[in-house]
UniProtKB/TrEMBL annotation:
<keyword id="KW-0170">Cobalt</keyword>
<keyword id="KW-0378">Hydrolase</keyword>
<dbReference type="InterPro" id="IPR002933">
    <property type="entry name" value="Peptidase_M20"/>
</dbReference>
<dbReference type="InterPro" id="IPR036264">
    <property type="entry name" value="Bact_exopeptidase_dim_dom"/>
</dbReference>
<feature type="domain" description="Peptidase M20 dimerisation">
    <location>
        <begin position="178"/>
        <end position="271"/>
    </location>
</feature>
<dbReference type="InterPro" id="IPR011650">
    <property type="entry name" value="Peptidase_M20_dimer"/>
</dbReference>
<keyword id="KW-0479">Metal-binding</keyword>
<dbReference type="Pfam" id="PF01546">
    <property type="entry name" value="Peptidase_M20"/>
</dbReference>
<dbReference type="InterPro" id="IPR017150">
    <property type="entry name" value="Pept_M20_glutamate_carboxypep"/>
</dbReference>
<dbReference type="InterPro" id="IPR050072">
    <property type="entry name" value="Peptidase_M20A"/>
</dbReference>
<dbReference type="Pfam" id="PF07687">
    <property type="entry name" value="M20_dimer"/>
</dbReference>
<protein>
    <submittedName>
        <fullName>M20 family metallopeptidase</fullName>
    </submittedName>
</protein>
Length: 383
C-alpha cells in the first residue's frame, strides 16, 4: 500500500485541482442543463486520468447518467457516486481556508468521485489492475431520491463482487457507513371549502384545521424504539387571512430500519382519512429507498477496509446512519456494499460544507486498497 499512497501523495496537488474543477461546475439537481455540463466535466476527468469514455444514458427530465468501464474480465468492483447537488447557482463560494476546501457539493459528493478516479489511476499507473474490472456508475439525481436512476442502477449494478459507495464519511469520526435507514417521501394535498372568515365562516371547511389534525396523527407514527421517524417537514396552507382556507399541503420524510416498518408507515400514510366532513385528501409518493442492512458479505468487506486502513496508518469505525444513499439499492440487490468511502469533512447540505484536504490522499488510497483486495471469492456470502 505504501507505493499507492506515495503515488497519490506525489499527485496531491492535481487531485485537489480536479476536485476544484468538478465543484466549480455547479449542478443543482433540478437544472438539467447545468447537471449535464457538470457531467461533461466529469467525462473529461475520466478521459484525462483513466483514458476511458462514458456510456451515456440520456434522461429527458434530469441530468444524463454516466457509466465508465475499465477492464474486460475478472473480479468486478463497482463504484457509485452522484454528481448533482442540493445547491442553487451561486449559493456557496468555492474557497480554500485552514486546510479545508469549501464549496457546493464538495463533500456531498464530488470530492469522493475524484478520489475514486485517482484511486484507480494509481493502480493503473502502478500496473496493479491486471485481471480486475472496474465499473463507475455516476448518476445525476440522487439528491432527489434517484427517481430516474434507481432502475438504471438496478440494471447495471448486478455482476459486482463488491460495491463501493464514495459518499462522505461520517462527520467527525471518518467512519464508514455499514448500514442505512430506508427512506420515504410523501406529498399530501388537503382540499376544503373556502368562505368569508367574518360574514359566513360556518359555510367553510378549513383545510388548515384538517392539516393540523393530520400532522398530529402523522407524528404519532414515530417509533424511535424501532428506529422509525416520520417528519412533516413542509406545511403550507391558505392564501388570505380573511378566508377560510380551502387548500393545504404537507411534505413528509420517513426513515425506517426494516421492511416491516416501511410497510406499516406506507399503509398508514396512504390510507389517511379526513377528520372533518367536506375534506378531500390526496396522497402521493411512497417509500423511495429500502433499508441498507449489514450482511455477512458486507461485514467481511468492512473488515477488509479496516485492514487496508491499518496498513495505511489509521483506524476505521463502522456506523449505522439515518440518511439514505444509492447504496441502499445495491444492498437490496444482495450485493456486498460499503458506504461512506468518500471524503472527510462536515456540513452536508449546510452552508459550511467542506472537506479536509489532508485526508484526500489516505481516503483515495483506501479505495485503491479495497479494489486491490477484491478477488471475487466472497460472492457465496451474499444474502
Amino acid at each position: 500500500m505504501k507505493n499507492i499512497k506515495d503515488y497519490l501523495q506525489q499527485h496531491a496537488a492535481e487531485i485537489l485541482g480536479d476536485i476544484k474543477r468538478l465543484v466549480a461546475a455547479e449542478s443543482p439537481s433540478l437544472d438539467k442543463a447545468a447537471v449535464d455540463r457538470c457531467g461533461e466535466v466529469l467525462q473529461s476527468l475520466f478521459q484525462q486520468r483513466l483514458g476511458i469514455s462514458a456510456s451515456v444514458s440520456p434522461q429527458p427530465e434530469y441530468g444524463n447518467h454516466l457509466k465508465f468501464t475499465l477492464g474486460e474480465n475478472g473480479p468486478q468492483t463497482t463504484i457509485i457516486g452522484h454528481f448533482d447537488t442540493v445547491w442553487d447557482h451561486g449559493e456557496l463560494a468555492l474557497r480554500e481556508e485552514d486546510g479545508k476546501l469549501f464549496g457546493p457539493g464538495v463533500l456531498d459528493m464530488k470530492a469522493g468521485l475524484v478520489q475514486a478516479i485517482w484511486a484507480v489511476r494509481a493502480l493503473q499507473a502502478l500496473d496493479q489492475l491486471a485481471g480486475k474490472r472496474i465499473v463507475f456508475l455516476c448518476n445525476s439525481d440522487e439528491e432527489l431520491g434517484s427517481p430516474s436512476s434507481s432502475d438504471w442502477l438496478a440494471q447495471h449494478a448486478p455482476g459486482a463482487d463488491q460495491v463501493l459507495v464514495v459518499e462522505p464519511a461520517v462527520a467527525g469520526s471518518g467512519a464508514l457507513k455499514v448500514a442505512r435507514k430506508g427512506t420515504g417521501r410523501y406529498d399530501i394535498t388537503i382540499t376544503g371549502q373556502a368562505a368569508h372568515a367574518g360574514n359566513n365562516p360556518e359555510e367553510g371547511v378549513s383545510a388548515i384545521q384538517e392539516m393540523a389534525q393530520q400532522i398530529l396523527q402523522l407524528h404519532a407514527l414515530n417509533a424511535p424504539e424501532r428506529g422509525t421517524t416520520v417528519n412533516v417537514g413542509i406545511a403550507n396552507g391558505g392564501g388570505r387571512i380573511n378566508v377560510v382556507a380551502d387548500k393545504a399541503e404537507l411534505g413528509i420524510d420517513t426513515r425506517v430500519t426494516c421492511e416491516e416498518e416501511a410497510e406499516r408507515i406506507d399503509a398508514a400514510i396512504s390510507q389517511l382519512t379526513p377528520f372533518s366532513a367536506g375534506i378531500g385528501i390526496n396522497v402521493s409518493g411512497g417509500q423511495k429507498r429500502p433499508p441498507m442492512r449489514q450482511t455477512p458479505a458486507s461485514l467481511l468487506l468492512f473488515k477488509h477496509a479496516q485492514q487496508v486502513a491499518q496498513s495505511l496508518g489509521f483506524a476505521l469505525e463502522g456506523k449505522s446512519v439515518g440518511g439514505g444513499s444509492d447504496g441502499n439499492f445495491t444492498a437490496a440487490l444482495g450485493l456486498p456494499t460499503l458506504d461512506g468511502l468518500g471524503a472527510t469533512g462536515a456540513g452536508i447540505h449546510a452552508r459550511h460544507e467542506h472537506i479536509i484536504i489532508a485526508d484526500i490522499v489516505p481516503r483515495a488510497a483506501l479505495v485503491a486498497g479495497l479494489i486491490l483486495a477484491n478477488d471475487g471469492e466472497e460472492a457465496p456470502c451474499r444474502s
